[in-house]
Design a protein that fits this description.
It contains 15 helices and no strands. It is an all-alpha fold and 358 residues long.
């Protein structure tokens, strides 16, 4: 789309400062800075005569260099990068004190939001639903099971579940206690078992054993709300939709795209910002970012690729090296959540349940 963040927004200053703060800085402690109260030049400290000395050897200190020769050596040495570089003022960036994000116009917010989406598309070109599934029924069941647990735990549970009950007809006829035992690892297994039995019976009796492809039909099924319906529609039927889970809601409020807390109101406001064609992939990118970098308790601000665009920059760890240690899944070198991830996923697949590497 080619939009840029509005230059008349006061937030441009915030973005510039954040950009400097998140760049990895390899500088060691400046030489000769102690006791002066002033930042030292990277190539050495000033001598007692007030003239720069080469490589930290001042003429007033050693008496080995004087006149134009000392000046020439000092100039040559100071021009060479050392630590963070030889340029004046290139010392290690101090800890950033984040000022309150200044108000912006709606147009500026929309442009910033769309730019964030484009940036996330470059960071996560492989973003996808993190539930393993082979057909709409499996995705529907897996999404119901994912409530109050991780996608990883669901993916470790569903192979045995679908091996035993591959169709709605099979699951509708399951003995409740047997179904409960299989899905026990996902938590709340009794309530989830009732939902699975109810939705399977409804699919068998009302939809000829098939998962419907309309929102109004899906939300009538037991245990299926708007979020679950949008997951199924977007990823099994190609119908665009915004999926507002805990990660999505947290990030869009941090980014000041909305102040709403109710998932349906959040969905409605975000839908107004982005074209319909972007809704499903936007959901995946935001959730990916929330699970890997922008955590709830301690976001890795210093390793965040969209830090210059984030009003909440500084809520988490801003030191680049410390922030890297907070990254999760493929961003941190760990296995992902799917046992069978898409071919373009750059990380390692998750381990099956009971292997000791969960």
């Amino acid at each position: 789309m080619g939009e840029q963040v509005s230059p008349d927004s006061a937030n441009a200053t915030h973005a510039d400062k954040a950009t400097k703060a998140v760049k990895p800085n390899k500088a060691s402690k400046p030489v000769g800075a102690a006791g002066t109260g002033k930042p030292a030049r990277p190539a050495g400290k000033a001598s007692g005569t007030g003239k720069a000395a080469g490589a930290g050897k001042g003429a007033g200190t050693t008496g080995t260099a004087s006149g134009t020769t000392a000046k020439a050596k000092a100039k040559a040495t100071a021009s060479k990068p050392r630590g963070a570089g030889g340029a004046k003022g290139d010392e290690a960036a101090p800890k950033k004190t984040v000022k309150p994000w200044k108000p912006e116009s709606r147009l500026a917010m929309v442009r910033r939001a769309r730019r964030i989406n484009r940036e996330l598309a470059e960071v996560y070109p492989y973003a996808h639903p993190e539930l393993d599934f082979r057909n709409p029924f499996e995705l529907l069941v897996a999404t119901v099971l994912s409530a109050q647990t991780t996608d990883l735990r669901v993916n470790q549970t569903t192979p045995a579940l679908f091996a035993r009950y591959p169709t709605p007809e099979d699951m509708a006829a399951a003995a409740p206690e047997e179904l409960e035992e299989i899905i026990r690892p996902t938590g709340f297994f009794r309530a989830k078992s009732r939902s699975l039995l109810g939705l399977s019976a409804a699919l068998r009796d009302e939809f000829d054993g098939r998962v419907p492809g309309r929102l109004e039909d899906l939300v009538r099924l037991p245990g299926v709300g708007r979020k679950t319906a949008n997951v199924v529609l977007g990823n099994a039927f190609g119908v665009p939709g915004i999926t507002v889970d805990t990660h999505f809601g947290r990030l869009v409020r941090r980014w000041k795209w909305t102040e709403q807390e109710d998932p349906e109101k959040v969905e409605a406001e975000i839908c107004e910002i982005f074209p319909k064609s972007e809704w499903t992939m936007l959901s995946h990118r935001v959730v990916f970012h929330g699970r890997r970098i922008c955590h709830s308790r301690k976001p890795a601000c210093g390793a965040c690729p969209i830090a210059p665009l984030c009003p909440a920059y500084g809520e988490g760890e801003t030191d680049p090296e410390k922030a890297k240690k907070l990254l999760k899944y493929e961003m941190g070198g760990y296995p992902g959540q799917r046992l069978a991830p898409p071919p373009d996923y750059p990380g390692r697949p998750a381990a099956p349940l009971g292997t000791g590497d969960e």
